[in-house]
Give the backbone structure.
Amino acid sequence: MFVMRKLRYAGPFLGVLVLLGCASTSTTTSSYSPGEMGDHSYQQGDLDGAIHHYTNHLKGDPGDAARRYCLGIALERNAQLEEARMQFEQVLQARPASPEVQLALSHVLYRMDNDVEAEEMLGRVMVTPEFSTISPLDRVLAYGLLAQIAIRTEDPEAATLALDRALALSREYPAHVTDGHLRRLLNNRAMVLFGLGEFTEARDSYEKAIQVKVEAGAARSDSENYMACYLNYLARDFPRCREYFDQLADQQLASLGTTTEDPEFFSRNSDTSGVSSR
C-alpha cells in the first residue's frame, strides 16, 4: 500500500533561478539608473526596493526582458506569485525559447498549486536542445521540481525517475551541486521508496544522505540515527539496525550524564513530598 500522504518530504527545494544580469557592477548608488538600483536592492536582499526600482525602470524601458525577468524573480521571492507569473509570461513573449524563463515560470506555477501546467512546461523545456545548455545545477533543480510535482500528485514512479536523473547529474557534475541539494535529493528518494515499501533502497538512499552530512563535518542527530535504525529494521538488516540503536543509546546516555551533573536534578524531577509525614 502506498502511503505517500503520511510522509514528510524535504522540499520543495528548487532554488530561484537568478539571471546573471541581476548583479550590479556599479560602486556608488548615486550613479545608479532605476534598473541598476533594482539590481543593487536585489543583491542586498531588499525585495520591496528591487520591485519598486525594477517597476520604475520598466515604465521607461518596457522591452528590457532581462530586467523584467529579474522583477519576476523578486516578486516570486516576495511571495507575489500572480504578479511574478505575469512578468515571466511577458518575458516568454520576447524569449520563447529561454529555458531559464520557462523553468522560473514552472516553479511559480508549482507554488500556485497548478501542478498540471507546471509539469507540462517542464516536460516541454526538458526535451529542447536549449535545456542541455543551462547550468548543471539548474538542470538538477528542474528534475528536483519535477519530482516534487510527482510527489504531490502521488506518482511515486515518476518521482523516483526524476530524482534518479537529478542524482545522476549530481554525480556527473559534483562541483555544481551543494551538499544541501544532494542531501535533499537523497532524502526525498528515500521517502518515496519508503512509501513504495522498497525498504532496502530507501535505507541506502537515507544512509547516503547521512554520509554527505558527516563528510561535511556535521554529526548525525538523534532523529537521523533513529530513522536509519528503523529503515534497517524494515530492511531486515538487524546488525546495522543495532549499530544505529547503540549510537542512539550512547547519545542519550551522554545527554543524561550531562543533565544529572546538576546537583538539583533529582530534587527537581522527583516527587519527595510527604516523605517525612506519617
About this structure: Residues 1-21, 274-278 have pLDDT under 50 and may be disordered. Residues 35-134 form a domain with the Serine Threonine Protein Phosphatase 5, Tetratricopeptide repeat fold (CATH 1.25.40.10).
